[in-house]
Write a structure and sequence with these properties.
The protein is α+β, with helices and mostly antiparallel strands. The chain is 35% helix and 24% strand. It has 9 helices and 12 strands. The chain has helices at residues 2-21, 32-36, 38-55, 59-81, 86-91, 113-122, 140-144, 213-225, 245-254; strands spanning 95-104, 127-131, 149-151, 163-166, 170-176, 186-193, 196-204, 232-237, 257-258, 278-283, 287-294, 304-312. It has a 6-stranded mixed beta sheet with strand order 3-4-2-1-12-11. The chain has a 6-stranded mixed beta sheet with strand order 5-6-7-8-10-9, with no helix packed on it. The longest helix has 23 residues, at 59-81. The chain is elongated. The termini are far apart.
């Protein structure tokens, strides 16, 4: 009986580690979901291997433990590789400090539209980026009293999916599709933030296990941002962690950086122990000061994010 339990646990741990280790030998879109969970799956495999070792003292269980530890440690290194230092950001003097609210509110979450609107109106954010914005469309008149400028939900598009709200007018504005799977899920706008033009981008990508759409969309997004000059802040639902191969390639190509650690945004049931698939990325000279989880998901399947950032004064 003890040997049987040992074998079952070792098989499960081997399968778990094999799935996440496959990324090191092949780039397979079907593994995209598991790649985002590399830290969690590695820790799960370690626990299975240690339990197996209690049932039978055998070298293979210890081998699995070591392999799991290596994969977990590497995942942490990858989480930090494209991170920016919030200490540097907070120490920077002479720049204005602003707030960005970004939130995938879930397109079927109509019963919480009023509560989410209350959050937006009372957030004191300078710019708001909402994804799957349909549940707040009926509240738009109330929102526009605080945020009179918008892209999305009837402006530049007839649908109400991706939405940018601003207290300040847009100097430039653009809305387009990323690939063929979804329409109008990329927005780029320039806003004068106390004398310094800042580019605000909004992106909502498909799930990484929908064929190769996620990788294609990231390539199109990188190309769209290539000619953007000056401070850039990109927020969005990327449906993937920064440790997935295509996300790492995207960050390397664009020079965008994220806070570390990033707050978990999904799944809601995991709270602070989930993974980050909603991100806020910045490019110098803009600096991220903090990115925090909005703890009440208000019926969404994602947590929202509140970002504080600084913009150097225009010289």
């Amino acid at each position: 009986m003890r040997h049987t339990v040992y074998c079952v646990l070792c098989v499960l741990a081997t399968l778990a580690l094999g799935i996440i280790a496959a990324r090191y030998v092949a780039d397979l879109w079907v593994l995209g979901f598991f790649e985002s969970l590399q830290t969690h799956i590695s820790l799960f495999a370690i626990i299975l291997a240690l339990i197996a070792f209690l049932f039978k003292r055998h070298w293979y269980a210890m081998f699995l433990t070591v392999a799991g530890a290596v994969l977990a440690i590497h995942s942490v290194f990858m989480l930090q590789e494209y991170a920016t230092s919030s200490l540097v950001a907070s120490a920077e003097a002479g720049g204005g400090h602003f707030r960005l609210l970004s939130f995938n509110i879930e397109d079927s979450n109509f019963e919480n539209g009023t509560r989410i609107t209350d959050l937006i109106v009372g957030s004191n954010a300078d710019v708001v980026e909402i994804f799957e914005a349909g549940p707040i469309f009926s509240e738009m008149d109330r929102i526009l009293k605080v945020y009179p400028y918008r892209i999305g939900c009837g402006v530049m598009t007839t649908d109400c999916d991706s939405l940018i709200l601003s207290k300040r007018p847009f100097q430039t504005q653009m809305m387009r599709s990323l690939g063929s799977l979804w329409d109008n899920r990329f927005i780029l706008a320039t806003i004068n933030m106390d004398g310094q033009p800042v580019n605000f981008a909004s992106a909502h990508l498909s799930k990484p296990y929908f064929d190769e759409f996620h990788q294609v969309e990231l390539g199109l997004l990188a190309a769209a941002l290539e000619d953007v000059k000056g401070p850039l802040l990109l927020a969005g639902d990327f449906n993937a962690s920064v440790i997935t191969p295509d996300m790492r390639d995207f960050l390397a190509a664009t020079g965008l950086r994220h806070a570390f650690p990033e707050p978990a945004t999904w799944p809601i049931a995991a709270g602070a122990y989930g993974i980050t698939i909603d991100h806020v990325f910045a490019r110098a000279p803009l600096r991220l000061i903090s990115v925090t989880q909005i703890r009440d998901a208000m019926g969404s399947n994602h947590f929202g994010l509140m970002t504080e950032f600084s913009v150097p004064r225009h010289q």
